[in-house]
Design brief:
344 residues; alpha/beta; 2 domains; eight-stranded mixed beta sheet; six-stranded mixed beta sheet; 11 helices
């Protein structure tokens, strides 16, 4: 499996929460949480078109100002997702600035903001630069099975956690990966070309076998115009896409554990907070965070392939190795891939 999305922790394991996920084949990126993003280049920020925010504590949302400053003056649409009250928080952030000259702007910056409640009900609003970021209600919906976004390349599901405030966890799951075998194309005497994107799309969208793929071009001295999907299935193989789960700022309660395990089940990578050492369980409970042991136990119960703990408290800056060891000790179950240096 060759992953489509490549995740990295913007600020390492101790800094503000922000997980940058760049697409392999497109100039686009996803961001989970919006803490300090000053480590990202302007080019990388301009690639972001979706941001999934857990909650609006300052270390998860302070990066909005840098995002705004980088994007103003460019034609851009960004979708943001967050917990109840998120639309008003984005609106008030924007209204902290004066926009009296927006009528002279040649480009429009648009934020499409969606907030999700505990019943998976979604409310969305549009905030446009050319309207001085007035809040326009654009509708309501329901996140069926917790899915807040579904596209051809991946879908994103969420679960509501408790952190003495609603806090969203996310799982990003890629669609099926379609691999083309050049030797099988040669055996059919058909050429490579842009039409292969149409073939991959047809498979991902579950088109029927009689769906026609337009090929065009020349192969072996003869014109090749079109073939059915059934005729072309032999040139490809289909594998499961990557699943990445992102969990942060959650009290260690039975309800939170159950929700996390259900959301992160069988993830290829689980990014999970481990704010406190196992010895500081009481402090973790007081602050409504997970400790290292809880993070490892949850990762093991969810059956994830690799765990990437982060959001370590700065009080342990000299103990990173010990923090990682505690997570891995609780997680270890033979044969699983250990955590690595997934930082930008």
């Amino acid at each position: 499996m060759r992953p489509l999305l490549h995740p990295s922790l913007v600020n390492g394991r101790f800094g503000d929460a922000a997980l940058y996920m760049e697409s392999l084949f497109e100039r686009r990126a996803i961001l989970c949480d919006l803490g300090d993003i000053s480590a990202l280049s302007a080019r990388n920020i301009r690639r972001i078109d979706q941001i999934f925010v857990s909650h609006a504590h300052i270390d998860h949302f302070i990066g909005f100002d840098r995002l705004l400053r980088t994007l103003v003056g460019r034609e851009k649409e960004v979708r943001l997702y967050g917990p109840p009250g998120f639309i008003q928080r984005v609106y008030h952030k924007l209204q902290g600035y004066l926009w009296n000259l927006v009528d002279r702007s040649l480009c429009d910056l648009v934020f499409l903001v969606t907030e999700i409640n505990s019943s998976c009900e979604m409310r969305s609003a549009r905030l446009r630069l050319k309207s001085a970021f007035a809040c326009e209600d654009i509708g309501h919906g329901l996140a069926e099975n917790g899915v807040v976004f579904r596209g051809p390349a991946y879908h994103v599901a969420t679960a509501m956690l408790e952190h003495r405030t609603p806090c969203l966890a996310y799982a990003i799951e890629e669609g099926q990966h379609v691999n083309i075998w050049k030797n099988r194309l040669d055996a059919l005497n058909v050429p490579v070309g842009a039409w292969l994107c149409e073939l991959k799309r047809a498979v991902i969208e579950n088109r029927p076998d009689d769906h026609v793929i337009h090929i065009g071009g020349l192969s072996g001295g003869r014109a090749v115009t079109a073939m059915t999907l059934a005729q072309l299935r032999q040139v490809l193989s289909v594998t499961r896409g990557q699943k990445v789960a992102y969990i942060t700022d959650a009290a260690d309660t039975p309800a939170n554990r159950e929700a996390i395990i259900r959301l992160a089940r069988d993830a290829d990578i689980l990014f999970i907070e481990a704010n406190f050492r196992a010895a500081d369980t009481a402090l973790a409970a007081e602050r409504a965070h997970l400790n290292t042991r809880a993070a490892g136990e949850i990762a093991r119960a969810a059956g994830v392939k690799r765990v990437e703990p982060f959001h370590f408290s700065s009080r342990y800056e000299e103990l990173e190795g010990q923090m990682l060891a505690e997570v891995m000790d609780a997680f270890s179950d033979g044969g699983r891939v250990p955590c690595s240096k997934l930082t930008s």
